[in-house]
């Protein structure tokens, strides 16, 4: 289903170049897998939902973050990688395959067959370096620590880069100029919006802390 365009993309505080990039992200997110194997891609979709549940933030909208990540893996990326890991596409293919191996070692099931708590255990152990050694896993526990950090960072960054997320959460950091002049912001207040900034659609409250210190 085609996405509705966020209204802020029509603002004169967005340059044509920035608008084009954001529209390309929307188009890309509605695309299809191009680089990862089908097995790895299917697993990535599950992992994206495990690490970043979208419903509390976006309501009924669900972005296909796995597609955006898949497309980005064939590009130049941010220009660096851990020396202990292979290049991005190979690292993600190996990392996702390793999740299945370690899930099997810990719970005798594939990652997709685990319940939410078990999947969280696998992800947490990957991140803190406490996975058991597994000869069949493409990435060692030490490599999984590095890769799983990239995994988490990439999922969150991909989510925040999408225009629908930016509209829903009231993120207006792209609204710093236009085609003819840099307009920018006049206030550094955390609570007061500029007149050109859209109101975020969703409001979040921080639960009060109770109980003993």
Could you explain the architecture of this structure?
This protein is mostly helical and 213 residues long. The protein has helices spanning 16-29, 38-51, 55-58, 65-72, 88-107, 116-128, 141-161, 163-169. Helix 4 crosses helix 7. Residues 171-213 are annotated as: Disordered. It holds the Pfam family Gluconate_2-dh3. Residues 171-189 have a biased composition (Polar residues). Residues 190-204 have a biased composition (Basic and acidic residues).
Largest sheet: none
End-to-end separation: 49 Å
* Helix residue percentage: 40-55%
Structural class designation? mainly alpha
Overall, the morphology is elongated
| DSSP strand content | under 5%
Order of helices and strands: HHHHHHHH
Helix count, DSSP H or I runs of 4 or more residues: 8
Oligomer: single chain
- Mean of the pLDDT scores? 85
Show unreliable segments: 201-213
Radius of gyration, Cα only, in angstroms?
20 Å
């Amino acid at each position: 289903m085609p996405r509705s365009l966020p209204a802020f993309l029509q603002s004169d505080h967005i340059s044509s170049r920035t608008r084009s990039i954001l529209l390309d992200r929307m188009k890309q997110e509605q695309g299809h897998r191009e680089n990862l194997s089908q097995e790895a891609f299917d697993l990535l979709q599950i992992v994206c939902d495990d690490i970043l549940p979208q419903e509390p933030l976006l309501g009924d909208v669900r972005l296909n973050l796995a597609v955006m990540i898949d497309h980005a893996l064939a590009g130049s990326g941010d220009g660096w990688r851990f020396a202990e890991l292979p290049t991005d596409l190979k690292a993600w293919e190996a990392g996702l395959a390793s999740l299945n191996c370690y899930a099997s070692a810990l719970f005798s099931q594939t990652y997709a067959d685990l319940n939410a708590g078990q999947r969280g255990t696998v992800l947490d152990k990957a991140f803190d370096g406490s996975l058991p050694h597994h000869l069949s896993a493409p990435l060692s526990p030490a490599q999984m620590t590095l890769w799983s950090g990239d995994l988490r960072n990439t999922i969150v960054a991909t989510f925040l880069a999408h225009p629908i997320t930016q509209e829903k959460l009231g993120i207006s950091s792209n609204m710093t100029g236009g085609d003819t002049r840099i307009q920018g912001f006049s206030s550094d207040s955390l609570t007061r919006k500029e007149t050109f900034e859209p109101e975020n659609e969703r409001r979040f409250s921080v639960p009060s802390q109770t109980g003993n210190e």
